[in-house]
């Protein structure tokens, strides 16, 4: 994780930043899937819980070879008018490190009931008696709205940035550039 590339959204009167970030991140995800890459991580320098936002910059982290391989793909088609991008830059030696991970929550009791009914061969009424409304959880983390390629459904990818640490923790990243244990540089 000694190199990075910043991709910053340009202001656009027609499209709000969260919509553009969702489109950009969806393209990034598809590129990682196509490359079968597990050595590229992401961070969001403008990330904030209050106000809740991912910000307007997607920072890609990796080795020079991994980032060059990603950027040699044509994954930014359709986004180039909406972004400004830095060249491959070396991570500052004074950078801290943090885990950037996906968090999943039970946010919709009715969806959980439908799923239970289907999986346990129950009626919806039986599932309702087993799953109370109180299982729903209000989430205060920033998120990116994406569309599932397999189901076509829209979903929220909730992202949590952990505490900063002075030393990096090596590991792999999923196809969203997120990890449950590996860190990315934070500066």
UniProtKB/TrEMBL annotation:
It comes from the Bacteria. Coiled coil: none annotated. This is Type I-F CRISPR-associated endoribonuclease Cas6/Csy4. It comes from Halomonas kalidii.
């Amino acid at each position: 994780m000694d190199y990075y590339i910043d991709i910053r959204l340009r202001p656009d009167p027609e499209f709000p930043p969260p919509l553009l970030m969702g489109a950009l991140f969806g393209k990034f995800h598809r590129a990682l899937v196509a490359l079968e890459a597990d050595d590229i991580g992401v961070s969001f320098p403008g990330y904030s819980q209050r106000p809740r936002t991912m910000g307007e910059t997607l920072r890609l982290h990796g080795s020079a070879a991994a980032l060059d391989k990603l950027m040699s793909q044509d994954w930014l088609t359709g986004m180039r008018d909406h972004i400004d991008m830095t060249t491959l830059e070396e991570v500052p030696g004074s950078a801290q490190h943090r885990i950037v991970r996906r968090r999943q929550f039970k946010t919709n009791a009715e969806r959980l009931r439908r799923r239970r009914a289907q999986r346990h061969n129950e009626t919806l009424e039986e599932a309702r008696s087993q799953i109370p409304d109180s299982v729903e959880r209000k989430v205060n983390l920033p998120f990116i709205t994406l569309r599932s390629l397999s189901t076509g459904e829209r979903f929220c990818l909730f992202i949590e940035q952990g505490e900063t640490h002075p030393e990096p923790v090596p590991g792999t990243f999923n196809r969203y550039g997120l990890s449950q244990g590996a860190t990315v540089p934070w500066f």
